[in-house]
């Protein structure tokens, strides 16, 4: 079998420090002590962790991959929590055994940007959750979009009341695209209800300062809402009505300008900002420069931009071209730069922006300005990153775990309970076949949409475990109960540096000023004569020879 990743063989990472013989010795040896470095302190009550009831699982012989480590181990799961991780563990009497030899075991995916509960979604919540677990994702952070005239708190209550049909963990992020004065108090109430991020429209730094005060993440779509309508009008006047007009009305320079402005506002307000669906190389370059200067800006890259590009907008088939209508347009030749950002930016995450839109609602629209935007992707997101970034040698499996799970857990204050395989962590896991045995077709896809930009994507998720329950196995959904996940503010991975900068600003740090002043007058005795006089003969006499 051909290698599926540089450094892998038959789906297993061959680490230079662990030979195959050493692996076998580890698995055959007596049970060792718990892996102390990977132990997670239990910071929640037992009733608040996991959710697997009395179910017990024994995952045997897996190659465990975290964002910072790879090792061979057995994993014991009880009551929705990882109870033990180590080689050759004793099998609990009532445990269901999951054979994992030759496979990788990852923390299950966390998709930080979905629209499962969107009013125009072609799928219901249950269908969307099935798509998530089929792709190896156990937790999604869904966007709450208020209806016209609906308050933030009312929209949040409406969505939370409808989460009973979920099969996976669901956290929420609230869209607040209005003036700050109208939602200031409501934002505080929403945070108290378990929300730690808002999707906002930044017109100034006031709302960023308010987000910083609340300890929440400000998320912004990089689109200039003033200039884009003007460009759309110009494009329509030229007679361009198809999806290509969507790309042409949103040039890379405009996205880059918006990103640069957001980074400046982030730095001035000392507020972390996450920029959604970045798609252009120029925007990424602007972010890199701004981060070097101290901006607290983070990037969320859409999986659609990793697998596809803007050339599809010019396809003669309207159905095909319209299927690529994402929130921010895909760019020609943008994939490589986006993968590089996933590899290099510290808290970069890959999100799906999953929104099930029927092709009919797009093809029947009068022009590109009326076409609903969004693509499915929660089922294909992790596979897309694996195929385009890992198998091509751009990132390793540890970085894969970071951009599909761990970094999102850190940003949204879920780490280390989620996003890590360690004792005490929630049992959200995915058993991964690095080789991939089959390809995803529209007939097998969980979503009901009739066209997808991920057609033919190789499938890798074999078993998905949510809260200690197996919900996806052998290509089939096993009914389970998901849960609402409260997201607490003040994530230390975002706000520790904010608090430190605030301290530096408040104390009014002043550089030390030396009391030693060197001047000509100090050496010249206070008179105005020059401090030295050039003479022809130095002390001791004149010398014109070598000795």
Automatic annotation (TrEMBL):
Residues 22-41, 526-547 are annotated as: Disordered. InterPro entries: Amidohydro-rel, Metal-dep_hydrolase_composite, Metal_Hydrolase, Metallo-dep_Hydrolases_sf. One of its GO terms (molecular function) is dihydropyrimidinase activity. Residues 305-470 form the Amidohydrolase-related domain. It comes from the Eukaryota. Signal peptide: none annotated. GO terms for cellular component: cytosol. GO terms for biological process: pyrimidine nucleobase catabolic process. Belongs to the metallo-dependent hydrolases superfamily. Hydantoinase/dihydropyrimidinase family. This is Amidohydro-rel domain-containing protein. The lineage of its organism: Eukaryota, Metazoa, Ecdysozoa, Nematoda, Chromadorea.
